[in-house]
Structure formats: C-alpha cells, structure tokens
Amino acid sequence: MPTLRGGLIGAHISRTRLPAALEIMCAASGWTLDWQLIDTAEDPSFDFDATIAQARMDGWTGMTVTHPWKTHARALAGDGMAPEVAHLGASNTLVFGGTLTGHNTDYTGFLAALDEAGIGEIRDVTVMGAGGVAEAVVPALVERQKAGARIGVFDIDPNRAEALARRAGATVLKKGDLTQARNRDHGLVNCTPLGMADYPGDAFDWLTPTNDPPKWAFDAVYTPVWTPFLSAARAAGLQTITGFDLFRHMAIRTFRAYTGVALDPSAILPQLARLEPR
Description:
Layout: E1 3-10, H1 18-29, E2 32-39, H2 48-57, E3 62-65, H3 70-77, E4 93-95, E5 101-103, H4 105-117, E6 125-128, H5 134-144, E7 151-154, H6 158-168, E8 171-172, H7 178-182, E9 187-190, E10 216-219, H8 228-235, E11 239-241, H9 243-259, H10 265-273
Parallel strand pairs: 1-2, 1-3, 6-7, 6-9, 7-8, 9-10, 10-11
Antiparallel strand pairs: 3-4, 4-5
Helix pairs in contact: 1-9, 4-5, 4-9, 5-6, 9-10
C-alpha cells in the first residue's frame, strides 16, 4: 500500500482540516497517510528552504504551504512550476521526486468553487489583500472577468498590491479609492488573514450600505468559516462563497498533485463537507 508522506508549513495551523481531508482521500484510494504539521508562528528563526531540503532528503512525497510561506514556495520552485500555474506568484503545494514541482491548488480550487456557486463571468470586484492566497485568487478572477470589468486590489503594502496587479492584469486601489469602488462592486473578496481565530478583524469594516449592494462575497479564511465579514455579507443578502468551499476543492487537487489519483468530486466533496469547522 503506497504512503503519502508530507506535511503542512504555516503559522497558526492547529485548526487545519487538511490532514483529515487527506485521510479521507487516502482511504478511498488505498493509500496510507504520514503527515506532520510544521507551525512556524513561534519560530522566528524558521528556515523554509532548509526544511524543504531535509524533507526531500528524507523521502517525503511533498509539502503543502500556507500563510505566510506561499510566495517563498513559489520562489523555491522557480522554473519548476507546473505549466498551468507558472504565471502565478505563489505556490501552496510542492511535490518532490527527481525534481521539485510547484503547484497552486488554491488557483484551480477557487475556479472550481466559482463554478460550484454558479458565478460565471466576473464583473467589478474589490480584493482586500495581496499576499499568498491573493496571488491565486486575483489571476483567477482576471481570467473570468467580463470585458471592461475591473478587478481592484488593495493592500496595506502598496508595493505588494502593485506587483500583484501588474502580474495579473488587475487594478491597484488606494485607500481613498475604496468607498468609490464600493459603489460599483459586484463582488467582494477577502484575501487577508483578518477574521481567522488568531487574526481578529474584518477587512471590509469600511463598508457602508448603498442602493446597489454587491451580489456576492468570498472570504479565503475558513477557521472560522463564518468570519465577521462573511456573516455580515450573508445577513445583507449577498451570495457567499466560504473559505471552506475553496478548501474542499483545493484538497482534492492537492491529493491528485501528490498521488496522481483523480478522485470523483461528486463522491468525495460530500465526505469533505463533514469536516467543516463549527
């Protein structure tokens, strides 16, 4: 019986559902799982590259990467990114072997979550945050945008927002643009860690009611699922896509990247749904 041996690198990851999701998929595929959590929150001297090098020497299958290490993973992958995501500035999945290959299952998972929600052509959207998950979400939105639509990106680090917007073909928003943007938005997207159990807050706390409110909202955070932002969006009648919706689709694609096994989403997604944080 083959073994998927790997781990998750990130900060404040004790609540992750990924090991449980991989266990479900391994059980459905005749694999066993050997998985470790590598929480870097309290380790200021953590050496990402050295950790990956050691895992490769030890024969691991690969490594999943989350906040704040996704752009580091992309840099390490270099020219080894899978072709379909080579244009992205982040990687959340590194697959080992003779060569190291970077994947971004946030990107493909988010596109699948949009499809599941029935959101096709993307109109004007404001994205808060330009970090690792935004490096997947913003290009996905641009890929689906309607002609003439605006995908706007705001980040407290304007240089980071500018770099992402330039790569993805999006528009940089400054703080003074946010209220005006709010009056034209069709979708609202949180790609900051605000709302996580360890990062309290709401990236959209500047919002005020308008006569033409947005139609949908997405929050990349899934621990908890119903963040202050997404709870407020639901209460206002917006269609909501949760970070857990993204997670389920991401997990299936991560498992395939590691094992080569393409599971039937219609069979696995309901099983993964039982892992939703309460």
